[in-house]
Amino acid sequence: MTEQLDFSALWPYWPELLAGLWITVQLTVMATVGGLAIGIFGAAIRSGRTTWFSRIWGGYVEIIRNTPFVVQLFFIVFGLPNLGLKMTAGEAALLAMVVNLGAYSTEIIRAGIQVTPKGQWEAGRVLGLTRLQTFIRVVLPPALQRIYPALVSQCIIVMLGSSVVSQVSYEELTFAANLIQSRTFLSFEVYLVTTGIYLALSITLRQLMMAAGRKWLGVQA
Questions:
Q1: Over residues 124-148, mean pLDDT
Q2: Non-local CB neighbours of 72 within 8 Å, separated by 6+ positions
Q3: H runs (alpha helix) in 115-186
């Protein structure tokens, strides 16, 4: 005996889904900006001379890349308060996403920098630029151009990983879906709709970031 799908029962809950979607979008935008900023800074540190600071940064990258995101989130939510660092669920979720993306983007951007011809550094010195100016104006733009698609993919992975923050009761999209499912018991319908929303959000985010890359970095389609 087959059951009839009842998507109409979800209409009263669209405000909850849209509110959760909006929170997910906000988290994604802020985590992307913060994570990429950390990644650029970390790539600059890791691409220079080996120092104690670059070794510490390398340790951070290895820890984040070799542990589950949910464990990182739980450490921030439940571990840091023991050290006196208390924060809301939203602040913890954002911090976890920024830290996670920062580690991965560090290595992605560093890979782009490593294949940069040494002649570009020398050209910067000839033009009288400082090492920092050479990095920002001469080395970083073509490096980002080379690894931009991989960077976009990592940002989308972090966005999808934001669903984990529902485990700490932060009311993003997956939290809203779980809440609606608990009220309606329409598991298939609720999670099918949620899957479609995440899919549309991923495609939209990729298109927007690639369009920005083509405009500002000259990334090829």
A1: 89
A2: 64, 96, 99, 100
A3: 118-126, 131-134, 140-161, 173-184
